[in-house]
C-alpha cells in the first residue's frame, strides 16, 4: 500500500503532464491549431516545462523536441521517485532506458485513447463539430494507412479498431521489453 498509492498518484500526474507534452508535440507535428480549448489547455499545462527546454533543445523540422524531452523528463522523474521509494537506487544505469520505454508506453496509451474518442465521436451525430474536426485531424494519420487494407463493413469503418489492436500489440511488446530491461539491470 505504501508503494501503490504513490505509484498511482505519480502515474496520474505524469500521465496528465507527460501526455499533454506528447500531445503538444503531436499537434505541432500535424500543424493542428492551438486556438481551440484543447490546444489552450495543452499550452497552459505544459508551458512551464517546455518553454525553458526550448532554450537548449531546438526543434527539428516539424518536431518540437523540447516537448518530447519534457515528457521524457517527467517519466524519468516518476521512475526516479518510485525507485527511491523502493530503495532500488543501485540500478541507475537502466533508468534512462526504462524512462524511454515508459515514454513509449505513455504515447501508446495516449494514441489508444485518441482513437477510442475518435471512434465514439463518429457514432455521436450531434457532437461538437470543432471537437470532432480536431480529433479527426489527430486520428486520421493513424487510420488512413489501414483504410487501404480494411474495407467498410456494412458502412462501418473498422480501421480505428484495427489501429487500436495494433497499438495494444505494441503495448504488449513494450511491456515485455520493460520486463527484460529490469532483469538485465539486476
Explain what the structure shows.
It contains six helices and no strands. The model has no long low-confidence stretch (mean pLDDT 92). Helix content is 75%, strand content 0%. Helix 1 (4-29) runs antiparallel to helix 3 (65-86) and helix 1 crosses helix 4.
Short recap of the structure:
This protein has 186 residues and is an all-alpha fold.
* Structure annotation, total helices: 6
What are the secondary-structure elements, in order, as H or E?
HHHHHH
Span of the ends, CA to CA: 24 Å
Percent helix, as a range, is: over 70%
Number of strands: 0
Describe the protein's topology.
Blueprint: H1 4-29, H2 37-54, H3 65-86, H4 95-123, H5 129-147, H6 159-184
Helix pairs in contact: 1-2, 1-3, 1-4, 2-3, 3-4, 4-5, 4-6, 5-6
List keywords for this structure.
single chain; 186 residues; mainly alpha; 6 helices
Amino acid at each position: 500500500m505504501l508503494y501503490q498509492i504513490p505509484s498511482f498518484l505519480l502515474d496520474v500526474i505524469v500521465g496528465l503532464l507527460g501526455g499533454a507534452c506528447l500531445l503538444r508535440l503531436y499537434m505541432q507535428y500535424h500543424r493542428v491549431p492551438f486556438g481551440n480549448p484543447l490546444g489552450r489547455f495543452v499550452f497552459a499545462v505544459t508551458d512551464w516545462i517546455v518553454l525553458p527546454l526550448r532554450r537548449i533543445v531546438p526543434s527539428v523540422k516539424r518536431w518540437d523536441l523540447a516537448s518530447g524531452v519534457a515528457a521524457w523528463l517527467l517519466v524519468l522523474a516518476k521512475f526516479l521517485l518510485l525507485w527511491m521509494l523502493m530503495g532500488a537506487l543501485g540500478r541507475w544505469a537502466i533508468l534512462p532506458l526504462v524512462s524511454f520505454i515508459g515514454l513509449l508506453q505513455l504515447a501508446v496509451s495516449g494514441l489508444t485513447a485518441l482513437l477510442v474518442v475518435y471512434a465514439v465521436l463518429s457514432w455521436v451525430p450531434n457532437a461538437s463539430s470543432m471537437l470532432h474536426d480536431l480529433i479527426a485531424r489527430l486520428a486520421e494519420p493513424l487510420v488512413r494507412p489501414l483504410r487501404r487494407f480494411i474495407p467498410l463493413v456494412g458502412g462501418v469503418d473498422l480501421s480505428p479498431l484495427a489501429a487500436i489492436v495494433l497499438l495494444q500489440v505494441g503495448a504488449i511488446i513494450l511491456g515485455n521489453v520493460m520486463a527484460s530491461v529490469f532483469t538485465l539491470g539486476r
